[in-house]
Amino acid sequence: MKKLTKEEKKLLMRKWKTSQKKEYLLSKDEVEKLFIYLESQLEQTPCQHTRMHTKQWLKNNQPQDKIEDILNEMEEMGGYCDCEVLLNCYEDYDIE
To answer: What are phi and psi of 26, to 5 degrees?
Structure first.
């Protein structure tokens, strides 16, 4: 078997990473808006260890039939309360 060059290895790694990208129910733009909303809410009141603010944002910005699936997706990423949604969810989007 032929030995791969450094550039060939990098290219293969990039292709593999691209193929591993998860498709989320929320777009990057929607996640950014959710995070801005959560940050502003959590600045006013500490996390209540619920997803009260997350659910409110979803109710105002997403179709009703999509909300439960989004909440389940967040749980899979470790988002069981508002602060965990901010800290654990949608890391692939690299939102700062």
So the answer is: -100, 140
Exposure class string for 27-56: b at 16+ Cβ within 10 A, else e: eeebbeebbebbeebeeeeebeeebebbee
Indicate the burial class of 25 (C-beta count within 10 angstroms; 0-12, 13-18, 19 or more). middle
Residue 16 pLDDT grade (very low, low, confident, very high; cuts 50, 70, 90) = low
Positive/negative CA dihedral, 89, 90, 92, 95: negative
Residue among 17, 26, 43 at smallest CA distance from 79: 26
Give the residue extent of every domain in the chain.
46-96
Condensed to tens digits (0 to 9), the pLDDT of residues 42-91 reads: 999 999 999 999 999 999 999 999 999 999 999 999 999 999 999 999 88
